[in-house]
Design goal:
By secondary structure, the chain is α+β, with helices and mostly antiparallel strands. It is built from 9 helices and 19 strands.
Length: 342
């Protein structure tokens, strides 16, 4: 567990944050200039806050020199030593758990290469491995995928998921990409103008209508734990099972029995009081309205309960009035298969 309290004036930005992060991956999310990287720098000891503390498992590491804090730091650019091989880069700061880390990050075939011969995704995996081999008690990842194209991001994300699941330490992950955050994080810290707006379990915050002003309407929605239960090779559709019901998505997603997360944006859910017929949408889930939140302007945010799963739908005020929606009402949520993402 890491406990962070920081007060620091950074030009026009007054950084004033307090949050705790358990073992697992905690994403620090917010717009550019909100203070995300400044938090990591203060935690690492690369800048000195005016007041506050950084406690790791109860010990105040904020009073220690940066090199004594047992922190691994991975930057947006990999910062590998160009004159060293991958093997030499990895073991520069130590060789703790070398073989397991090489296996976890898929680096065995890269050990003899030099950084100039690595793709962006491969270089970031090496940078993460180097940080881990120094035997850190805390890992800081500062937008490690921001400089990569979509293909290279897709290459690295499974390794970050594996790291999240295996590592027994807190990981602070800075990002402005909610697709990354939704796939990787267990805990979320929402940051705006140098202050924590809200922090807590990712599943709760993404589907909370009150957080839409910070998350953005295009980001807010549900994040469902699902299991891969089928794949139809004929029409290339994967069946995923959530407590809300069976959900179909295009393409082959994971292996049978694998646990995944499924992101359903609030703006991509259509509500119906009856089971619709003759529609192209494949996913029609029975739900109950838990709450209605009016939004300034033309919209209403509808919180939906489906078993233990919670969905969020953003519809127009006119649609809400036409359907005469109210809390406790049983309705149906319609979700296009093409709108669902990991």
């Amino acid at each position: 567990m890491i406990d962070v309290v920081i007060k620091q004036q950074l030009g026009q930005l007054a950084l004033d944050v307090a949050f705790s992060a358990p073992a697992g991956l905690t994403a620090i999310f917010g717009p550019s200039g909100a203070g995300k990287t400044s938090i990591l720098r203060a935690v690492a000891g690369l800048s000195q806050p005016a007041s506050g503390h950084v406690r790791l498992d109860g010990t105040d590491i904020g009073v220690l020199a940066p090199q004594a804090r047992r922190i691994g730091y991975v930057f947006q650019d990999a910062r590998l030593f160009p004159h060293m091989t991958v093997e030499q880069n990895l073991t520069y700061g130590g060789a703790h758990d070398r073989d397991r880390i090489i296996d976890m990050l898929g680096l065995s075939e890269l050990l003899g290469r030099y950084p100039a011969r690595l793709s962006g995704g491969e270089a970031q995996r090496v940078a993460i491995g180097r940080a881990l081999m120094s035997a850190p008690q805390l890992l800081l990842l500062d937008e490690p995928l921001a400089g990569l194209d979509a293909a290279r991001k897709a290459e690295v994300l499974p390794y970050l998921e594996r790291l999240r699941d295996i590592a027994e330490m807190p990981i602070l992950y800075v990002s402005h990409d909610m697709a990354e955050v939704a796939r990787l994080a267990t805990t979320l810290v929402l940051l705006r103008d140098g202050r924590v707006v809200r922090d807590g379990p990712l599943l709760d915050l993404l589907s909370d209508p009150a957080q839409i002003p910070v998350l953005g309407a295009e980001v807010a929605g549900a994040l469902l734990p699902v299991q891969v239960t089928g794949f139809d090779a004929t029409d290339q559709m994967t069946t995923l099972t959530a407590d809300a019901g069976a959900i179909l998505v295009p393409g082959q997603l994971g292996e049978i029995g694998q646990s995944l997360r499924l992101r359903i944006p609030a703006r991509d859910i259509i509500l119906s009081k009856t089971v619709p017929a003759d529609v192209s949408a494949l996913n029609i889930l029975p739900v109950t309205i838990a709450d209605l939140s009016e939004v300034d302007g033309a919209f209403v945010d509808v919180t939906l309960q489906a078993g233990s799963d919670r969905l969020l739908a953003r519809i127009t005020r006119r649609s809400c009035q036409r359907l005469d929606l109210s809390p406790g009402q049983a309705i149906h949520a319609i979700v296009k298969a093409t709108a669902i993402g990991r």
